[in-house]
Predict the structure.
Amino acid sequence: MSFPKGFMWGGALAANQVEGAWNVDGKGWSVADVATYKPNVDVKDYKANVAISSARIAEAMADKDDTYYPKRRGIDFYHHYKEDLALFAEMGFKVLRVSIAWTRLYPTGEEVEPNEKGVQFYEDLFREMKRLNIEPLVTLHHYEMPLALSLKYNGWTDRRVVELFVRFAKTCFLHYGKYVKYWLTFNEIDSIHRHPFITAGIVPDLCGEKGETACCYQALHHQFVAAAKAALLCHEMIPGAKIGCMLTKLTTYPYTCAPEDVAATQKKNLENMFYSDVQIRGEYPRMIRADLEARGIQIEMEAGDLELLKQGTVDFLAFSYYNSSAESVDPNAPRTPGNTILGVKNPYLPSSEWGWQVDPVGLRISLIELYDRYRIPLFIVENGIGSRDTVEADGSIHDPYRVDYFRRHFKEMEKAIDAGVELMGYTSWAPIDLVSASTSQMSKRYGFIYVDEDDLGNGTLKRTRKDSFYWYKKVIATNGADMDD
């Protein structure tokens, strides 16, 4: 079988990591605009890199410089998008995943009418994508909610944010429905417990006696409700459109075959899929409800919420996959970071400079597991490796390590498809260098296209094709048939 005809090859971006222009054309503050680059913090220490407080937010807002706030500048995609889209088209992209910055349309999230210049920017973006025959895959909420809602309501912990988001989603469907057929609601919605502020605008010191964990579950419920409402609205407003949910696929193996390790691993994997269970099956899993009750966590729900979750399910499951990890009940088992997680280190897998363990076979396992569980189309919308690249004297960038990473993962995707998995497409993270989500670095490079910018914003922003650019172009042109160097 191999890759099916019409398979959507492409790449994935997020507004807060590429657009820049953080205070241009009426855009408001987002939670990403106060994310700092911390050169004195170990890049593997994710908790330190994403730590936030009311005092730190106030300090960031008082500092109008972008030197230590890289997401304010990104790679200036806002002004370079035509150049970047032309490069993606040259690679043969069938699809490009992007997100819409809520604060570009509604600067504080509470305006009644959208910002016209913000609306126009995305109109221009999608029109250019259509001209180049690149299908947009649009994420509505990708780590860039209005900072004003975080400070006023402690983010998604407040029910009022639901309707504000629905208004934003309705505006997107109204203006861009003629260009966009594929939509996603929340990026890695499960990440709310790993970085509550980035995911849901939750500031720990604003949680009070309720505590951060309870705030996270309450905010999560509100996001589930908002996602269901958005799904129903999308289907109503854009005939033929497809809307999906998006999960961080955190595939976990037992560190040993000791039954205790297997049980701990089972629990971890079930917790990971809780988020897609709700949005695909339309209900909270019985075991999750039992676990919340045992921990004394009560989620406030309004009448009709559970019925709404049943009605507003999604059409496909999108997910990110970067690495796998292991699990053990042994507190002395060696640990290593992953995609904003800390897991037990698998002795059978190599690791990147940032500690992420490279596991192509784990992608095949994940695809088969997810498709067997849900029986709906899957879409890999993030997968890639962060590496340091060297620009040679002649300006070339040789990155065989990146080609090797993708080739090995593509081979495993092929095996999963041959096994019967229905896979819609694949968007690499990221097709062009951008600001890292967790550590706010530029030096952690993912792209097939090099951007001349360092961690402190120095550089010309010149775009340069890496060796991997030409390799991925060939893979797309042959629909995965030719993956040789």
The domain at 8-477 is CATH 3.20.20.80 (TIM Barrel). The chain has a mean pLDDT of 96. The chain has 16 helices and 14 strands.
